[in-house]
Amino acid sequence: MTDRISPRDLRLMVLLARGHTTDRAARELCLSRHTVGEEISSLLDRFNCRNRAELVAYCYAHRLLPIGIWPPSFQKGDCHERPPGSAA
After folding, report:
1. 3-state secondary structure labels for all residues of 41-78
2. Model-level pTM?
3. Is 31 helix (H, G, I), strand (E, B) or coil?
4. What is the pLDDT of residue 36?
5. What is the pLDDT of residues 3-13, one digit of tens each?
6. What are φ and ψ of residue 33, in 5° steps?
7. For residues 73 and 26, is the Cβ–Cβ distance under 8 A?
8. Residue 83, preceding bond cis, omega within 30 degrees?
9. pLDDT tens digits, residue range 52-72?
10. Are residues 22 and 33 in contact, defined by beta-carbon separation less than 8 angstroms?
């Protein structure tokens, strides 16, 4: 098992840590609900966690999510962010 996590997985973990549902995370990530559900299941298996709360705790314990920062955030913007200089 590896503690390495992709930027996409990290964005999903941030949303789960913030308490987002699968549907809301899917909207934020511009993915289908099914895809997000599959990614969550994959992360649960990968880190040997039984549920989302345990997965979020694992990520904090292994410093995959920043400790002492609330709400957690990620470096790059989500799919709704526009590149600098683009029209609104």
Report:
1. HHHHHHCCCCCHHHHHHHHHHCCCCCCCCCCCCCCCCC
2. 0.78
3. coil
4. 98
5. 578 899 999 99
6. -60, -40
7. no
8. no
9. 999 999 999 999 988 888 888
10. yes
Query: Distance between CA atoms of 14 and 56, rounded to whole angstroms?
Result: 8
- What are the Cα distances from residue 4, in Å, to 10, 69, 77, 81? 10, 20, 20, 25
Residue range 3-27: mean pLDDT, rounded: 92
C-alpha distances out from residue 11 to 31, 40, 72, 87, 88, Å:
12, 12, 10, 25, 24
Angle made by CA atoms 7, 30, 5, in degrees to the nearest 5: 15
Q: What kind and span of H or E run contains 38?
A: helix 33-46
* CA proximity to 11, closest of 20, 3, 2: 20
pLDDT band at 82 (very low <50, low <70, confident <90, very high): very low
Nearest to 28 by CA among 58, 42, 8, 52: 8
